[in-house]
Specification:
single chain, 619 residues, 4-stranded antiparallel β-sheet, 18 helices, 57% helix
Length: 619
């Protein structure tokens, strides 16, 4: 048997051994796969009513699998007795059971938009996901301390290596078995259900997880497993990838970002916060990860990167702090700035530890990640509580200043507020009402998202922040107006026929015939125009009575509702309807939705018009 064949055989042998080493983790993974297969088997109408139940099971078993991995590793590497091993595995059964109970009885929400049944709340999901993350990081820390030859960075690389080995085997197995199933479907059983491929994917995922667990060496205390060297060692091609490709790219990117930051400071040409936050976050997280990966690599480039990156990261973070300060001053604390603050703290701590070369810096970096993740789901300071509280406080200040919030009662403005105030109120209101799980003050109505209710209760229409998007660096190149018809009755006295065109027929054209007292009419709704502005064409026998496009109507609508940034409004019936009249016919068009999209960069305008009905009156 050659070396390659032995390696493959060893992988599957280790996967089988994982059943003995991590039985509770495997059992949880198997339960996860069984639940998945049941969900695949059920059709959606059957599954919908049990969706909450299945989601609780899935999250519980996922947490159980990772918790078991950490607990068993702790028992073996720190104590290594049969009793502690049994206790660790029992906890791998009890913990997912307790998690399921907590999710099922305390983690549901009935306010999810469009949901007919209870659903898992975002906060409950985030808390379980955080518990999974902390458990997994705990496993890495324990693995890094299990022997004198290991370290946190080595254990982290070993986890990466195990993941990609399992991924490659999983993809190959999935491809091969799916190919066989495809051949059976094509040649022998053409009515085979497509769910077969879903079953194959589920079982392959379970097998890949066992390969992932089986790749790890023996963590038992006092045991010297020679696989430690193989598991933690970077293959030559990985060293080349890190040292001569990824490190130079990271150094070049660092230089570019430093020059970019300098240009922004000198020219005061700041990008929008979302763009800046995405760039800084990617640089910080990716840079710290690469620093951990090349911790033990020798050579001029890795050494230079290890010394220089922490300094550069602190400079970039200091630069981004001003953008964060401006963002908080203008918009208050929101979810994007909240997560950026957590990233900022974590990256600053990590860069400081790497700069001073603390002996346990890698461990403390991962511990910092755990602490920040835990903070993000706590009741008062978590991502669901703190941004909402900040926006409520911001909104209250604006309303009280304008005399619109008196003794806990919301009142319409007596006089038109300033543009900046209207924009701030609209921004805060829309942020709060968009979070269907947010706990809002009693005076706050979630229907304020509707422009007519907003105007009735606050005294002015929703007013969004406007920006000179042509000249402002980093801003969007698109403007749009999205109009929807307000919920009002439509007066159709005198009209005899109601016509609903069928979109998509005859290359976008819809033809409807009407037999009247004075002749037969063919109504054509033509949609195949370059910018999607439709044309109404009405013929009586072979005579054209009406052939009119909606260009003039759209110009009128654009003047009433100029396109803005994410500008969504409810419009009254008079603006969402059009009357076209001839001596023989009167046609009344009512629209349910109209979108006007402007691409400033390319100087193009597109329209999307949803026609509700055409009402026709014969004179």
């Amino acid at each position: 048997m050659n070396t390659f064949t032995k390696s493959i055989a060893q992988i599957f042998k280790d996967a089988y051994k994982a059943f003995e080493t991590f039985p509770a983790a495997i059992l949880n993974a198997l339960a996860f796969a069984v639940v998945t297969i049941i969900r695949i088997h059920l059709e959606w109408p059957q599954q919908e009513a049990y969706n909450f139940f299945f989601n609780c099971l899935h999250w519980s078993f996922a947490f159980g699998a990772i918790w078991s991995l950490m607990a068993i590793t702790a028992a073996q590497s720190q104590v290594d007795t049969k009793k502690t091993f049994v206790i660790a595995n029992i906890s791998g059964i009890l913990i997912p059971l307790a998690t399921f109970v907590m999710l099922y009885y305390f983690g549901q929400t009935t306010t999810a938009p469009g949901a007919r049944y209870a659903a898992l709340s975002q906060l409950a999901t985030a808390r379980v996901a955080t518990a999974i993350l902390i458990s997994f990081i705990g496993f890495i820390l324990l693995a890094g301390r299990s022997t004198e030859r290991s370290s946190t960075a080595s254990a982290l690389f070993m986890v990466h290596k195990a993941f990609f080995v399992a991924l490659i085997y999983g993809v190959v197995i999935m491809s091969g078995v799916s190919g066989v199933a495809g051949a059976i479907e094509a040649l022998l059983f053409q009515d085979m259900s497509s769910k077969v491929y879903m079953y194959i994917g589920t079982l392959t995922g379970f097998l890949a997880f066992t390969i992932f667990l089986g790749y790890f060496p023996d963590f038992k205390k006092g045991v010297v497993d020679e696989r430690w060297v193989l598991a933690q060692k970077q293959p030559r091609f990985i060293e080349i990838l890190f040292n001569f490709i990824m490190v130079p790219i990271a150094l070049a990117m660092t230089l570019v970002l430093l020059l970019w930051a300098g240009k922004i400071v000198v020219m005061s040409d700041w990008p929008n916060f979302s763009e800046l936050a995405a760039i800084v976050t990617s640089f910080a997280v990716g840079g710290i990860w690469l620093h951990l990966m090349v911790t033990k690599n020798e050579g001029g480039l890795p050494n230079f990167y290890r010394r220089g990156y922490p300094i550069a990261a602190l400079v970039i973070l200091l630069f981004s702090a001003w953008a964060l300060f401006v963002q908080l001053g203008q918009f208050g604390l929101k979810l994007d700035s909240y997560y950026f603050i957590l990233m900022f703290i974590g990256a600053a701590v990590a860069s400081g530890l790497l700069l001073i070369k603390h002996p346990k810096s890698h461990q403390w970096i991962l511990i910092t990640v755990c602490v920040l993740a835990m903070v993000s789901v706590l009741p008062v300071v978590g991502f669901k509580a703190l941004p909402v509280a900040a926006q409520v406080q911001r909104l209250e200040k604006l309303l009280i200043k304008e005399g619109m919030l008196v003794e806990g009662q919301l009142k319409a403005a007596q006089k038109e507020p300033e543009q900046k105030t209207k924009e701030g109120i609209t921004d805060a209101v829309m942020y709060l009402v968009s979070d269907y799980e947010a706990v809002l003050p009693t005076w706050m109505d979630k229907q304020l998202s509707q422009n007519d209710i907003f105007k009735a209760k606050l005294g002015f229409e929703q007013t969004w922040y406007k920006a000179d998007i042509v000249h402002q660096p980093g801003s969007t190149d698109y403007l749009n107006t999205s109009l929807s018809l307000a919920s009002v009755p439509v007066e159709i006295t005198g009209y005899r026929w109601a016509v609903k065109p069928q979109e998509g027929s005859d290359k976008g054209n819809s033809v409807v015939g009407i037999v009247g007292d004075k002749g037969t009419y063919a109504i054509t709704w033509i949609l195949d125009q370059p910018n999607n502005i439709p044309t109404l064409k009405v013929m009586k026998d072979n005579t054209v009575l009406i052939e009119e496009d909606l260009n003039a109507y759209m110009d009128q609508l654009s003047a009433l509702y100029p396109p803005g940034v994410n500008d969504a409004k409810q419009a009254p019936l008079k603006d969402m309807s059009l009357v076209i009249e001839t001596p023989e016919l009167k046609v009344y068009l009512v629209f349910s939705n109209i979108d006007i999209n402007v691409n400033v960069k390319e100087d193009t305008i597109n329209y999307w018009i949803n026609l509700s009905s055409i009402y026709v009156m014969e004179k």
